[in-house]
Amino acid sequence: MTCKGAFPFFYGYMKKIAIVLMGVLALAGLGGCGTQGSGDETPTTYIFTDDYGRDVEVPSKPSRIVSVSHSVTEILFAMGAGDLLVGRTDFCTYPPEVEKIPSIGGISNMNIEQILSVKPDLVLSSSMVQQKSVQQMEKMGVPMVSVIEKQHFDGLFENIEKIGQLANRKEGADSLNRELHRELKALLDSLGEIEHPVTAYYVVGFGAGGNFTAGGNTFINDIISMAGGKNVASDVEGWSYSLETLMQKDPEYIIIRTEDSAAFCQTKPYDRLTAVKEGRVITMESGRMDIQGPRNIEAIRLLATRFRQGR
């Protein structure tokens, strides 16, 4: 074949290759746009920074949540996300429907094997979970996020928002927050201001093991204040309190969990407190006031009613 005859053949051959290459590149370009591009796709995971400052990769749409926190469990049910729970602790007893959900054991000593057995895609915890348990869960590849109780009452609304985001139930969380804000405002408006706030002391622990209460930097202090009381321990931070100071201040009201009331009133020297002798001991169902959750508003209502019944 002469050079003159070969050139058209070579030119035609290269033209075909060029067309094929252009097609491949076009397809590759379309593929790239599909994976990164339009922004219509919802990522399966994202990074959430929890209350301990840990960056945790969590699922965008969790379907199997284990709660290792009383407050988290109550909030999930209150926002209509109880159906996502596949595990809870022995101490998560409210609402009653929670009894149908398998328990994974305690909180501070949670059973890792039991948690893994229910195949969670997300574990939500609070401040009571030990750091070593968190590290164990991380090693097992199960995302564990801490949503801890906040110091002040308003922190409840923040926690509801966070839990709603983590559970992919933002609408339910927003609805719950709106309802709680409405209920709280209506309650406080109906109460008005009390001219002379009564003094009160909240019993967390008592006896030989020490005296513990809610100091001024706690959401329980806020609950007492909103109900029209003055927490005699508002001048301290944290939970430890002096027995001598309690006896000296001799508050007008004692607030205590129902199951602890009888023992407290029969134990010396607490039986000498004026509130005990005159029957001004307010018993509170466990979880209504000592756990930061939607039922805190019920606690405000109950305290406000008792405080206004007279000294």
Strand content: 5-15%
3D shape? globular
CATH topology of the largest domain: Rossmann fold
**For this structure, what is the CATH class of the largest domain?**
Alpha Beta
Model description:
It is a single chain. The protein is α/β, with parallel strands linked by helices and 311 residues long. The chain folds into two domains: 45-176, 3-Layer(aba) Sandwich (Rossmann fold); 193-307, 3-Layer(aba) Sandwich (Rossmann fold). It has helices at 3-36, 70-78, 112-117, 131-139, 155-166, 170-191, 219-226, 243-249, 261-266, 274-277, 296-307; strands at residues 45-49, 55-59, 65-68, 85-87, 122-125, 144-146, 198-202, 211-212, 229-231, 240-241, 253-257, 281-284. The strands form four sheets. The chain has a four-stranded parallel β-sheet with strand order 4-3-5-6. Strand 3 (65-68), helix 2 (70-78) and strand 4 (85-87) form a beta-alpha-beta unit. Helix 5 runs antiparallel to helix 6 (170-191). The termini are far apart. Residues 1-38 have low confidence and may be disordered.
